[in-house]
Structure formats: C-alpha cells, structure tokens
Amino acid sequence: xxxxxxxxxxxxxxxxxxxxxxxxxxxxxxxxxxxxxxxxxxxxxxxxxxxxxxxxxxxxxxxxxxxxxxxxxxxxxxxxxxxxxxxxxxxxxxxxxxxxxxxxxxxxxxxxxxxxxxxxxxxxxxxxxxxxxxxxxxxxxxxxxxxxxxxxxxxxxxxxxxxxxxxxxxxxxxxxxxxxxxxxxxxxxxxxxxxxxxxxxxxxxxxxxxxxxxxxxxxxxxxxxxxxxxxxxxxxxxxxxxxxxxxxxxxxxxxxxxxxxxxxxxxxxxxxxxxxxxxxxxxxxxxxxxxxxxxxxxxxxxxxxxxxxxxxxxxxxxxxxxxxxxxxxxxx
Length: 332
Ligand SMILES: CC(C)(COP(=O)(O)OP(=O)(O)OC[C@H]1O[C@@H](n2cnc3c(N)ncnc32)[C@H](O)[C@@H]1OP(=O)(O)O)[C@@H](O)C(=O)NCCC(=O)NCCS
Description:
The protein is of the alpha+beta class. It has helices at residues 13-31, 40-53, 110-124, 139-147, 172-176, 188-198, 205-214, 247-271, 292-301, and strands spanning 4-7, 60-64, 69-78, 93-101, 129-135, 151-161, 178-182, 221-225, 231-235, 242-244, 282-287, 305-316, 325-327.
C-alpha cells in the first residue's frame, strides 16, 4: 500500500489530535497503562503547543491517498528555528514524539517511513542530535527506533505524587543558603548558562522561552545561591526539564516547587471553574542510569510512586556532564 508523506499544516490539527488519542489509547489498553491525558482538551493543548506554538516545530504526516485521511504522524520540535542561521559552535536537538499510526494501519511500515523521512530532513538540515522518550512497556516502538538508528542512553522512571517535605530535612543548611523564585524572560541567559554546563554546546532556550511566553500559569522556578546570586538550579514548569549543580540542589528545588506550583495550579483551576484539582500529584522523570541515588531518594524518602518506565533514546551527538544533575522531560 502506498502512502503520501507530507509536512503538517494547521488545518490538520484536529485529525492529528484524534489520531494521537486513537493510537495511544489502544496501546495503553493493550498494556494496561494509565492514559497520559484524561480528556481530549488536554491532548489538544499538548499537541497544539508542539505543532503550532513552538517556533522549531517540524511534523510529518502519512496520508492514505484513497481516503485523504491522516493515518500516521511524527511530531517534532527542533531546539533552534530551522529557518534561522546557526551561531558557530551551537548544536541543535530535535525532540521527537509523539509518533502515532492509526491501529487499522499498523504493521504496514508507515512509522518506519515517517521516521526515515524525518531523519533525512534532519540530516539535511544538519540537526546534530535526535532524541526521544520511548515507552519501555512497548517492544514495537523500541524496535522501530532501534531500526531508525536510535540508541538507548538512559533508563527513566516517571515518579508521581507529592514529595514528602521531610525528605529534605537533612538539607536544611543548604536550603537556608538558597532562595527560590519564579523564572522570567530576563533569566533566560542564566538558565542557558546552567544548561550549557550540563549539556555542552546545546541549549533549551527556545523551549523555555516558548513556555514562559505561552503558559497560562508560570510554574518555572530558579534556585539561587543567596551569597553569590548565582543560579544553582532551575526547573521548567513541572514536569519540564531541570538542571542543577548537584543532586541535593535538585531535591530542594523539586520538593519546594512541587508544593508551590501545585497550590498555584489549584488556584488557577478554582478561578476558572475547573473541578479537577491538581494538588497531591506532580511528576519527575528520574534518570536512574546516571542518578541511581535519586531514584532511591524519590521512592524511599520522598514517597513517590513509579507511574511507568521510559527509555531515553538518541541518534547523533549526546554529551552530558556527569558532574551536573540533569532531569529530562518527556522529550529530551
Ligand atoms: C509504534 C507505532 C508508531 C508503530 O507503527 P507501525 O506503522 O505499525 O510500525 P511499522 O509497521 O513501520 O513497523 C516498524 C517496526 O516496528 C517493529 N514492529 C512492528 N510491528 C511489530 C509487532 N507486531 N511486533 C514486534 N515488532 C513490530 C518492527 O521492527 C518494524 O520494523 P520491520 O517491519 O522493518 O521489522 C504504532 O504501533 C503506534 O502508533 N503505537 C501507539 C503509539 C505509540 O506507542 N507510539 C510510540 C510511543 S514511544
């Protein structure tokens, strides 16, 4: 069967959301996994952010020529706008996902074709690194990505719950030397510098900037050394990525921002007449190949539960500084 591979355009947003829900709900049902989004509105918001709001958005769709319906897609955001010139030494990352194929069309090579086409474009545009989070319960997507030259780099457990504040009691002195405040657009340089220490050559400035400009409520926070005024950590809107100088700084930042942002989200929901309150649940993508101690702390001390496991997979350049604590989000 032949399929057309075309670039995503705005008029397909609803079809893309429906396709995502159809494909993922089927796989969650098959493996008995809780859904990522409980409502269509939640899925639409996430897909809209990736396909419409992010300046580095680049998605491909597979169209069935007989019905003209979208039967597959791979949604991608690139860390630098593909149209603008690159500064020397600046490396770029494409964050891939979700990848969905309609259950009626699976097993026909559509995802493989989409991945091949995407990798060709990214190679042509000289994107240095392609990254994704693979659902560890799903052997099909693992084979798909391995065959597309992605390699597993890190095992991740998504932890959920509200961290127990007593889990950072032993860090009281360190906590007293810091302050936490919300990130604004003026802090992008400081965040970028910290990110560059964790991932030399790379930047998530565009992701952070997009989030600060588009989020309805800002739940991105910086951890600052009171004496030097230096950023020792930041966290992009939970469950966004975080970068910290040490694991202990991360523990402080995570526990405090969970409580601060949960209260804020509840307040926002209350004001907007939403009954589903968020308190008592936040998420943390724990990279336990590089930070096994954080997994132990998260489960035993912070009393978080493991929701599900993921595999961070990369094609191309991957360099992390083991001295830093980098907590990924669902993309990289
Ligand atoms: C994962 C998914 C996108 C694959 O789409 P697809 O079009 O059916 O995949 P393809 O037919 O191109 O197959 C790609 C590779 O996957 C593997 N694969 C496909 N079907 C498989 C099966 N039933 N069992 C084991 N491996 C399988 C094979 O390695 C195959 O390559 P090959 O045919 O060269 O051996 C699709 O199953 C899907 O949408 N699932 C739900 C959403 C999801 O889980 N997305 C990925 C999240 S990490």
